[in-house]
Write a structure and sequence with these properties.
Radius of gyration: 18 Å
Strand content: 15-25%
Oligomer: single chain
Helix content: 25-40%
CATH class: Alpha Beta
Number of strands: 10
CATH superfamily: ApbE-like domains
Number of helices: 6
Distance between the termini: 25 Å
CATH architecture: Roll
CATH topology: T-fold
């Protein structure tokens, strides 16, 4: 069954077997809390109050400070290619909290004992188990030149459960070019990983940091990457090439 919940300016789309409806209320409540806490599109959100100076970051909630601390760790790990601060200094945690919300949704579905599911928020996706037919999940990647078209499809297998895509054409909300010398090399980056937060952060870092960030990420993290450059050329790591669906 498919379930859809509007959230964070997009939708949370879930596929799961019968029984998931028993935890939809818990998922909706969690997503509402994430939006109320982190959305910069809402003047009354906690993070908007921090951005306006009404609330000092040190006096914000433990949840906000924890996400910010995690984002700072990722900034250090990616040598600044990923950052939770906009060029004007505003703290913007969209680059990490959506992935955290996906992971939290998955944890709720796991706690309900569901053997398989997918969670998709804004095009980033986490899976559990096999699809309803018992096959590995096959995931479509959008064409950056045409958001209504599919660039390719990949099959998730083994421990690879998370897919995140970041780019400069449509998804610039948490992507600030200029963070490294190679920025602007790619118009779209898809990262496949075991963990959705790592996938989302590294997709953003590579899209912002370019070829240098790509080399760094693939050398230091166990991820697979598909990139599209400005002339439409594709680069895929061996794991992506082997996972391409017919």
């Amino acid at each position: 069954m498919r379930y859809v919940i509007p959230t964070m300016g997009t939708v949370a789309s879930m596929e799961a077997p019968a029984g998931a409806e028993t935890v939809l209320g818990d998922i909706r409540s969690m997503l509402d809390d994430v939006e109320a806490r982190f959305s910069l599109y809402r003047d009354d959100s906690e993070l908007s109050r921090v951005a306006s100076g009404e609330l000092q970051l040190m006096n914000s909630s433990a949840e906000l400070r924890r996400s910010y601390a995690d984002a700072l760790l990722w900034r250090n790990a990616t040598r600044g290619a990923f950052t939770p601060n906009r060029p004007d200094g505003v703290v913007d945690l969209n680059g990490i909290v959506k992935a955290e919300a996906i992971a939290a949704t998955g944890s709720i579905l796991d706690a309900a004992g569901l053997p398989w599911w997918t969670v998709n928020i804004g095009g980033d996706l986490l899976t559990r188990g096999s699809d309803p037919r018992g096959f590995a999940w096959t995931i479509g990647i959008v064409d950056p030149a045409d958001s209504t078209a599919q660039l390719c499809a990949i099959t998730l297998d083994g421990t690879r459960r998370a897919v995140a895509t970041s780019g400069t054409l449509e998804r610039g909300d948490h992507l600030w070019l200029g963070s490294s010398a190679g920025s602007g090399d790619f118009v779209q980056v898809t990262v496949v990983a075991d963990d959705i937060v790592a996938a989302d952060v590294l997709a953003t870092a590579i899209a912002a940091g370019g070829a240098e960030a790509l080399d760094d990420a693939t050398a230091r993290w166990s991820v697979d990457v598909l990139t599209v450059d400005r002339v439409g050329a594709l680069m895929a790591t061996p794991g992506i090439r082997s996972a391409l669906a017919a």
